[in-house]
Amino acid sequence: MDIKVLGAGCANCNKLEQMVIDVLRELNEEANVSHVKDLREILSYNVMRTPALVVNNQVKLSGVVPSKDKLRDIITSELKKRG
């Protein structure tokens, strides 16, 4: 699984990145997690508000830091898709 946090490094962007890492650890799962700070790359996802969460090249959230439960649901749903 490929997870990207899009954002220029604001506090909420960093918080979302840490939440992703924490949820993966709690689920005992691994993923390629990256924090994209390049504006051109962020805009390539048609994201106008950060932080944004991209999972397997699909924008799942934009402009909000979700609750940990919501984030866990998103990640779990993607894990189920891979079988």
UniProtKB/TrEMBL annotation:
Keyword tags: Disulfide bond, Redox-active center
Protein name in UniProt = Thioredoxin family protein
Carries keyword RNA-binding? no
Name the InterPro entries on file: Thioredoxin-like_fold (IPR012336), Thioredoxin-like_sf (IPR036249), THIRX-like_proc (IPR005243)
Does the record's keyword annotation contain Mitochondrion? no
Residue ranges occupied by any Thioredoxin-like fold domain in the UniProt entry: 1-75
The catalytic residues are 10, 13
Species name for this entry? Pelotomaculum isophthalicicum JI
Q: Which NCBIfam families match?
A: redox_disulf_2 (TIGR00412)
Disulfide cross-links: 10-13
Under the heading Pfam families, the entry gives:
Thioredoxin_3
